[in-house]
């Protein structure tokens, strides 16, 4: 059984992720190895949650832009890493060590922080259109 780090989950609502990005993140979390490594293609992950190739590509780009998903510098095919703050670990000790290491690496500029979009004002809420009666000709 894996132990999930939860430091990043408390701010997921602030990340302004699309439904597709949340679903893809869920697939990544499900497929990860201890420490957050995911060995699967983007197409496989997208298909797992019913996303088209284009939707999976857009969703992955959003996850990467928020630093939830990290790619190796060599952009190794089929390899993704979940940010240490949302990755799972094999033991409580491994979790604590990884979180401490991640904080040190963030301070040293070696690891990006999970980023939320910055708005001067909150984006407008989507307004639903009221239903209207339509007359039938005749």
Automatic annotation (TrEMBL):
InterPro entries: WH-like_DNA-bd_sf, WH_DNA-bd_sf. It comes from Streptomyces nogalater. This is HTH marR-type domain-containing protein. Residues 115-138 are annotated as: Disordered. It comes from the Bacteria.
